């Protein structure tokens, strides 16, 4: 069964609470992008917003840190109510320290592979991860309909690496999650997808049933 970490960035932000209520029955988690305009040229969400979301839903919150120096933010987002925190391996000089800090709060831990990243960049930390997010587009870019072919190759590598080492991290596909691409992402090894407009722009019940059938 394919899981859905529903991206709140694609919700109607003027009516976020009602959008969360609408998506709750179909979300295995809510994916919350946090960007500081330094690691990537965009600004999205912040700790107080995550805390406000936590107050209105029990659905797990996956915080995706698109920021420099993520070690500075782990405690803040843990206190805000995150259930998992994902960051980029080159956003800090010491990924192991960030992983340790996330795990010390009892949260699920993940690393995110941008288009320019190779699987080898996260291999030293792979045994400590619950999630590996594979981007199919540039970080923060919306509206792309086809994932970069590199994303499929990385997922295939991760599937083989997971089997070889007897690990159980989940592979999450983020970016260009569309009706026509999801079956290919699933075939490549995705356990989780991050639907945004696919969920909020369509019949949620039908979309959820379709995703879970894959």
Assembly classification? single chain
Q: Give the CATH class.
A: Alpha Beta
Average pLDDT reading: 96
* End-to-end gap: 6 Å
Instruction: Tell me how many strands there are.
Output: 9
Let me know the largest β-sheet: 8 strands, parallel, barrel
- Shape by Cα distribution: globular
**Can you tell me the CATH superfamily?**
Aldolase class I
Element-level helix/strand string: EHEEHEHEHEEHEHEHH
**Proportion in β-strands:** 15-25%
Number of distinct helices: 8
Q: Please identify the structural class as seen in this structure.
A: alpha/beta
CATH topology: TIM Barrel
- What is the domain tally? 1
What is the CATH architecture annotation?
A: Alpha-Beta Barrel
| Structural Rg | 16 Å
Helix content: 25-40%
pLDDT below 50 for ≥5 consecutive residues: which ranges?
Answer: none
Strands ordered across the widest β-sheet? 1-2-4-5-6-7-8-9
């Amino acid at each position: 069964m394919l899981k859905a970490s529903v991206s709140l960035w694609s919700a109607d932000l003027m009516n976020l609470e009602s959008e969360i209520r609408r998506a709750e029955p179909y979300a295995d988690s809510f994916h919350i992008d946090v960007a500081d305009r330094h690691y990537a040229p965009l600004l999205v969400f912040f700790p107080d917003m995550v805390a406000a979301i936590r107050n209105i839903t029990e659905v797990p919150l996956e915080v995706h840190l698109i920021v420099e120096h993520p070690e500075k933010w782990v405690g803040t987002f843990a206190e805000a109510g995150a259930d998992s925190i994902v960051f980029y391996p080159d956003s800090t000089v010491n990924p192991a320290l960030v992983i340790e800090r996330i795990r010390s709060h009892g949260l699920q831990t993940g690393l995110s592979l941008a288009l320019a990243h190779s699987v080898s960049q996260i291999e030293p930390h792979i045994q400590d991860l619950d999630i590996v997010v594979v981007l199919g587009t540039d970080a923060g870019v919306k509206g792309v309909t086809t994932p970069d072919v590199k994303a499929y190759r990385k997922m295939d590598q991760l599937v083989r690496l997971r089997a070889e080492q007897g690990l159980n991290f989940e592979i999450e596909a983020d970016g260009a999650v569309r009706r026509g691409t999801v079956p290919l992402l699933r075939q490549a090894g995705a356990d989780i997808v991050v639907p945004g407009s696919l969920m909020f722009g369509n019949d949620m019940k039908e979309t959820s049933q379709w995703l879970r059938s894959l």
